[in-house]
Amino acid sequence: MQAQVVRVPIAPMHMINAYLVIGDGGVVIVDAGLPGSAPRFEQALARHGKRFADVRLIVVTHAHVDHAGAAARLRELTGAAILAHRADRPFYTQAEPVRYCPTGPFGRLFKASGVANAAYDGFEADIELTGDDHFPLHRFGVAGTVRYTPGHTSGSLSVHLESRDMLVSDLVSSGILLGGIIRLGSPKRPPFEDDPRLVARQLDALIAAGGERFHVGHGATLTTDRIRRHIRMLERLPHRSASK
Ligand SMILES: [Zn+2]
Ligand SMILES: [Zn+2]
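A: This is the predicted complex of the input protein with zinc ion.
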């Protein structure tokens, strides 16, 4: 049977999302949310008749605080391994402060406020992907694969399910500001992004791999035609904005 994607609301109005993937043989958490988010996972699991003990893996897509913040705590509570990519390792271990490349006024404000650089409990991944690895999730009970999709950060991961659901985290966002209440169906760049052209290539590859529904870290789920439009916008950006 196909895995089911369950959104875990970390902040209201789709502002910050994490996900559960409920497969035949287990539950995989995709993104850990802000520090202190563990009860939200517990509630989402309970709504589907699951407990922390059913969680078999925690995939952390990248090292930003709104995605990695509660990973160490969730590992304690579930006993599941954390999977992440080596390229973001210095940030997960807190050896280096996370780098944020704002894409607009909101990102710059968020960065200046200090919220973005809030520390979280550092951790070392139990399963560390390197290079271009694809990691199958079947042995954790889910029909899908973790793919290396750098661009938002250099260590960004996405989860590709056989149901044609793609959990892309911050490769793309939707709606106003951090998701917000209006225009939820419209793709936009997340508040931070290292390399928009590289992001465009990843999104292209995920469509080519059969992606139909793109579940995001900020905003509502996007369809393929919306993603195509976003790719064209990223490709038209002037080169200089790439590293601002
Ligand atoms: Zn991010
Ligand atoms: Zn984010």
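Residues 64, 66-67, 170, 190, 217-218 surround zinc ion (ligand 2) (CB under 6 Å). Residues 4-243 form a domain with the Metallo-beta-lactamase; Chain A fold (CATH 3.60.15.10).
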